[in-house]
Amino acid sequence: MTERPRLTVIGTGYLGATHAVCMAELGFEVLGLDVEEAKVTSLQSGQVPFYEPGLPELLQKNLDSGRLRFTTSYEEVGAFGDVHFLCVGTPQKKGEYAADMTYVDASFRSLVPHLRDGALVVGKSTVPAGTAERLADELARTATAKDVELAWNPEFLREGFAVEDTLTPDRLVFGIRSERAEALLRAAFGPVIDVPTPVVTCDFATAQLVKVAANAFLATKISFINAMAEVCEATHGDVTKLSEALSYDTRIGGRFLHAGLGFGGGCLPKDIRAFMARAGELGVDQALSFLKEVDAINLRRRARMVDLARESLGGSFAGSRVAVLGAAFKPNSDDIRDSPALDVASAIQSQGAAVVLYDPAAMDNAKRVHPEIGYRESAVEAGRGADIVLHLTEWKEFRTMDPSALSAVVAHKRIVDGRNALDPVLWREAGWTYRALGRP
Ligand SMILES: NC(=O)c1ccc[n+]([C@@H]2O[C@H](COP(=O)([O-])OP(=O)(O)OC[C@H]3O[C@@H](n4cnc5c(N)ncnc54)[C@H](O)[C@@H]3O)[C@@H](O)[C@H]2O)c1
Asked: 329: alpha, beta or left, given left = phi > 0 and alpha = psi -120 to 50?
């Protein structure tokens, strides 16, 4: 059985659907489960219910191969699987920093009664340290099947590169308590390990911490350069030159050192907050108090963007038309969870402007959450009659845009580049007033 275990994936959202499809692509038989029937129907009929480059083709290919199926039945999943990956959401609790563990607990409790003898349950969701230990105790107390066990295998995929990151990750982390659990995990990731991919085996606590530590580090690096952007604004320096110069220092490196509107999405913001909350419970809140500042710097960028747009319009949004390019929290994704772009767009709308937005992939999601904003089907349509254009998500389509296309339709040639991703020389030569965060 450990040769090629049968896999199940519980929770088929951004992480789970990608994991299920990629594991089938690697040759495993995979059964995905979600409680949302519409999601299961969509996946089973070959439609990925979110935007992820490369995933639709692989989904269809693996449905056709017969190795991949989706269901809403825990009974079916329990009977099918040797290794079960838990991939449900762990969003921020409303009104608190801590993670909401409702979905992890509910899915775990739905699965356990159906497990077969010898099954391994593998947590992939990002959780507060201590969760795996708690679930392992519960498994030992409540499972009726023999020799069932828990392991933790945090996930590091990036939306937009999710397929590549799943098939060829930088590393695998296995939080395990037995040789048998390690052997099963090694079998479940055999083709990935053979690439080769480094495997770090460790205890539960470390495995859970690796994920939040990685996110805390990345968030800190982004906020560091955004703090430098604030100082550049006060000194008339240019943060893009500053970060370029820093990037040549091999001790620092250029990745995640790009100043702009800051981070968002369904992971970084809620993960650093949940990490702080858990540190507080553990009595080590001082160790992570710097993350409060990381979060504050990040949120200040959104406020600064709104201020810069207002300043550019002469001090008020009232009666003006604002074109917004981008709604997703980053390019190559339709994910709008905690999106800086949408936060800025809705703040400006509430200050009296008519905001008209275009995004290549995230319009449907944005409309659902912000019906008060206007939506158009292209950058040019969004720009028609605009007093100012705001570039808030750096899709390639925007980065490579010819300013003359917008010049022909806007009321005023003003642009604020919230991502420092446009070429100021090009836009200024085309007669635009170009402004950006952290540079003159
Ligand atoms: N999205 C990412 O890029 C990413 C990367 C690494 C880690 N993670 C972590 O992975 C986890 C999932 O994130 P996501 O972005 O895929 O979230 P998501 O909201 O897209 O997906 C979660 C899925 O779980 C389903 N679900 C909820 N309760 C369930 C239950 N009781 N049984 C079965 N399914 C249930 C939901 O219907 C949904 O489809 C989170 O902990 C997240 O922090 C996400």
From this structure: alpha
| pLDDT value, residue 403 | 97
Residue 438: left if φ>0, alpha if ψ -120 to 50, beta else—which one?
A: left
Structure tokens at 170: 């930088």
- Tokens found for residue 90: 């762990």
Is 13 touching ligand 1 by the criterion CB < 6 Å? Answer: yes
Spell out the domain ranges in the chain: 7-202, 209-440
Question: If pLDDT is split at 50, 70 and 90, which confidence band does 399 have?
Answer: very high
Q: Of 6, 280, 275, which is closest to residue 129 (Cα–Cα)?
A: 275
Matching CATH topology for 7-202 and 209-440?
yes
Q: Is the C-beta atom of 210 inside 6 A of ligand 1?
A: no
Write out pLDDT tens, residues 299-314: 999 999 999 999 999 9
Superfamily (CATH) of domain 7-202: NAD(P)-binding Rossmann-like Domain (3.40.50.720)
DSSP 169: -
Q: Would the CB of 10 count as within 6 Å of ligand 1?
A: yes
Q: Which of 34, 47, 131, 273 to mutate to test the pocket of ligand 1 (most atoms within 8 A of CB)?
A: 34
The letter for the amino acid at 16 is: G
Q: What is the pLDDT of residue 2?
A: 52
Single pTM value for the model? 0.96
Decide: 397 and 360 in contact? Cβ < 8 Å.
yes
Ligand 1 centre and the CA of 34: distance in Å? 10
Query: Is any ligand 1 atom within 6 A of the Cβ of residue 218?
Result: no
Architecture of domain 209-440: 3-Layer(aba) Sandwich (3.40)
In tens, the pLDDT along 404-421 reads: 999 999 999 999 999 999
Is 267 part of the annotated catalytic residue set? Answer: yes
| Partners of 357 in the β-ladder | 324, 375
| Angstrom distance (rounded) from CA 312 to CA 439 | 14
